[in-house]
Design goal:
Elements lengths: L2 E8 L6 H10 L3 E8 L7 H15 L3 E6 L2 E6 L6
């Protein structure tokens, strides 16, 4: 049984390889991950977009994202997204 969603916080250290590896590990048991950008990560829309793009590039083709405010919703698809 796959659980629905997990929450990851990105703070003043920004997006690190450890946080990307943690997101990869979460996707082994979850379908969705919510990444919350804290004030220390820089509260700018361009920054949120760049972090989301970096995460999806590291994860691969089966992942997409949606940004609402300073929250990034990541989703893993069964088939590759074109």
């Amino acid at each position: 049984m796959k659980l629905r969603q997990a929450i990851v916080h990105i703070g003043k250290n920004g997006l690190t390889q450890g946080s990307i590896q943690g997101i990869k590990n979460i996707f082994s048991n979850r379908e969705n991950v919510k990444v919350i950008l804290l004030k220390g990560a820089g509260h700018e829309k361009e920054n949120a977009e760049a972090i989301a793009e970096n995460i999806v590039n590291e994860l691969g083709k089966n992942y997409t994202y949606r940004i609402v405010g300073f929250t990034i919703f990541l989703k893993k698809w069964r088939k590759p997204v074109r």
